[in-house]
TrEMBL record:
InterPro entries: HTH_MarR-typ, MarR/SlyA-like, WH-like_DNA-bd_sf, WH_DNA-bd_sf
Protein name per its UniProtKB record: MarR family transcriptional regulator
SUPFAM superfamilies registered for this protein in UniProt: Winged helix' DNA-binding domain
Lineage top rank: taxon: Bacteria
Domain HTH marR-type per the UniProt entry, residue ranges: 12-148
Pfam name, any one: MarR_2
Amino acid sequence: MNDDTPWLSPREQRSWRAFVRLNQKLTARLGSELQSQSKLSGPDFAILVALTDEPSGRLRFQELAKNIDFEQSRLSHQIARMIKRGLVAREECAEDGRGAFVTITEQGVEAIEVAAPLHVAAVRRLLLDAISPEDLDALGDIAARVLRHLETTP
């Protein structure tokens, strides 16, 4: 072992491990419920949400990948599966022959309209019901601060 390693203190380790376990367990539960109730995977849901957040219902591949933190190849495979299921379509970009858009289909809109209320109910039941409004504010503040830090730290 390297003696120069700044090991986590017991307090830091307890908090870090609790955060990691919370993230793993909450993500798994939400994903499992989403799949069983709406037949959408977590990645399906993330893509459909990103597309419905756009008034046009479409995003360039690169912009979508950035929005949901997917590698380009992972996104391409996911989109191909979603196209086969009729949830999204691929549109070539007329202005840029190399670019393409991902567009939500009517079937994709219907799927997200079914899944979103179920997902919100699960988020409320599994997370929000367990914490106070003050805890929720603190959680939001901490998450925003760490996200800003991640965006500026190489």
